[in-house]
Amino acid sequence: MKFIKILLLFITFQVSAQQGGMWIPSLLEGMNEQEMTDLGSKLTAKDIYDVNNSSLKDAIGHFNGGCTSEVISPKGLVLTNHHCGFSQIQSHSSLENDYLKDGFWAMSLEEELPNPGLFIEFIVRIEDVTTQVLNGVTEEMTEKEKQSTISKNSNGIEAEVKKEAWQSTKIKSFYKGNQYFLFVTERFNDIRLVGAPPSSIGKFGSDTDNWVFPRHTGDFSMFRIYADKDNRPAEYSKDNVPYKPKHFLPVSLDGVEEGDFTMVFGFPGTTDEYLPAVAIEHITKAYNPSNIAIREAALEVIDKNMKASDDIRIKYASKQARIANAWKKWIGENLGIEKSNAVEQRRAFEATFTKALKEKELEDKYGNILPQFDVLYEKFADINIKRRNFIEIFLVTNELMNMTFRAYQFEQAVTKNPESFDKEKVSMDAILTGVHKNYNAKVDKGVFVNVMPFYTDNVDATIYDKTAFVNLDSALKLFDGTPEEVLKKLNNDAAYTYAKPMIDNFYNVINPEFEMKNEIITALQTEYMTALMVALPDARYFPDANSTLRVTYGQVRGYSPRDAVYYEPVSYLDGVIEKYVPGDYEFDVPQRLIDLYEAKDYGPYADTNGKVPVCFLGTNHTTGGNSGSPAIDAHGNLVGLNFDRVWEGTMSDMNYDPEICRNIMVDMRYVLFIVDKYAGATRLIDEMKLVHPKK
C-alpha cells in the first residue's frame, strides 16, 4: 500500500487560482494559501487553523453530526440552517404553539428551549497518523487482514493520545485509505433553541425552489451552546451558562458583490470525486432513477395530505423535507452529469491515465484496474439497486415497514441473547414512541400502496387493518410479557408476518451479496487512487468528503445553466414579493414581511441600491453536511450562510465543474433584517460584533 507521501512529493505547487476541492484546514500552507490569496483572500493559513492560538476553526461546529454551525457571539450564540434545526423546531411545535408556521424567538435566556440529544462538536486539533495506522500493512494481505491491522493500530493510537478528560478522539481515512488523520474533539450537549423564522421565510419556495436559483429562502435558525461553570461541555442543567467560545465570527454589514472572495468552512458529508466512468454511468442511468421513482411515489401521497391538514403538515414536515431533498438532488445530479458530458470526460481522463501507465512502465502493476471496474460493476449493479430499493421502502419512506424492520432486529437480538430482553424492550418502546409522535396511519397506508410495488408484487394493504403497529398503545402492548410471549405475539401480527420474509431475505441474501461485491470494488478504488497519484503526479488531488472539517474557497459568481440564460449572483427581497402567492403552501409570505417591504423599513440592512439582498451564489465546492456552513469573506467575517447548490451543480459530488457548479448562501444582511426588523429580537443583534470591512 502506497502512503500519501507519494502525493506530497509529486504535486506541483501551482499559483493559479484554481477552484474546487475540499481541503484539510491543517494543511493549507503553501499552494492552498497562495490560491486563496489569488482569489482575493487576506487570510493566512494560521488565521484559519491554529492549534496554539484562537483561529476560525474554533468557531465552526459540527451540528448534530449532519450539518455545520458557527458561533457568532461571545455568548455562544450559534447560527445554522432552518432545515438543520427543523426537527428541533418541529419537536417544540403544536397546534397551540406552531413554531413551524409562526416562527420562534426567545426574548431572554430563560425562554431558550432545551433539545435533548442535540449536540455541537468542535475540532481541537488534527494530526497526521498515517505511518502509525498503516504500520504492518502489506500489499500481500487480504482486505480483511488490512482492515483488521488498521483497526488495531487505530485503537492503540486513540488509547494513547494526550487529551483532556472531556475530549474525544476519532481517526478518519482519507484518499481512499492512503492517509489517516486523528481528530481531537469537544462535544457540547446542552444546546438550546433561540430563534427561527416561520417556514414561510425559512423554507420559502419549498420543493419548487429547492436546488435552484434564483433563490429567496431565509434558511437560518439560531441556537445557543451552554456549558458548565468552568466553560466545559456538560449535560443539560439549569445551572449551565452560555458558552464562551475561543473564537466567534464577526458579521459583515457590507455584503458581497461579484468577484468577492468566499470561503466555506464546514463538515461536508460524502463525495466520490475519483469514481471511474462506469460507476458514474451506473449511478446516473440506473441507481438514481430507481430511487427517484420510489421517493416520487411517496411524496405524491405525503404532499397531498399535508396540504389538506395542518395537523398532518406539522407531523410530516420534517419527513417530507428529508424525502424530497434527496429526490430532487438526484434529479439535478443526473442533469448536471449529462450537461457537462461527465461520463465521456471521465473516459477521456482514463485514457490519459492508461497512457501514463504505459509511459511509466506501470501497466503490469496497475493496467488491470479499469477493465476490472467494468467487470465488477456489471456484476454489482443489480444487487446495488435491489439493496437500495429495500432501504428506500423499509427505512426511508414507509413507517409501518420501518417499525417491522426494527421489530425484526429486536427479535434477532432477543433470540441470540435472551438476557438482553429488557434492554431491547426499552429501545423498542422508544422507537415506537418516536415514530408515533408524528404518525398518521392513513397517510402511511397511502405511501405503502404507492411504493411497495417497486419492491414486490405482493402488495397487501389489508395489513393496516390487522396490525397492532398502527396504534401506539397496541404497538407497545405487543412487547409486554415474557420473551416467549412477546415473540409469539410479534410473529402473529399481520404486518410483521408480511414483512419478515423480505427483511430476512435482505439480511441473509441481499446485504451479504452487496457487501461481498462492494468490498472488492472498495479495495480496487483504493488501489486506483494510489495508481492515479503515481501515474499522474501533477494532477490536483483533494480528499473526498467524509464528514470532517474542510475548507473550500471560491468567489461570488453568477452562472449560465442553459443557452441564453444567465443568473446574476444576488437575489433580493423584491423577488420574494414577486413570487408571493397568498395562502400557497410554498410561496405564502407573512403580512409583517410585506408591510416592511412596502414601507421600505429595512434598517441598516439594505445595499447601496436600497434593496435587501436575500441569497447569493459562489463557486465554493460544497455538499451535504455543508448546510449551515459559514460563508466567510476575505477578512474572516461572516457574510453568508451556505444552504444549497444549484440543481445542475449537485453533480459536484462526483464531478465538480467550475462553469456550472454553484453553492447558494443566505446573505447575512437578510438574516439580520429578519432577526431585527421582522422579529424584533434586537437582543441577539446586540450581542453580535457587526463590522464594515469594505469601509
TrEMBL record:
It is an enzyme of class 3 (hydrolase). Pfam families: Peptidase_S46. Keywords: Aminopeptidase, Hydrolase, Protease, Serine protease, Signal. Residues 1-17 form the signal peptide. InterPro entries: Pep_S46 (IPR019500), Peptidase_S1_PA (IPR009003). Its EC number is 3.4.14.-. GO terms for molecular function: dipeptidyl-peptidase activity; serine-type aminopeptidase activity. GO terms for biological process: peptide catabolic process; proteolysis. Belongs to the peptidase S46 family. Catalyzes the removal of dipeptides from the N-terminus of oligopeptides. This is Dipeptidyl-peptidase. It comes from Formosa maritima.
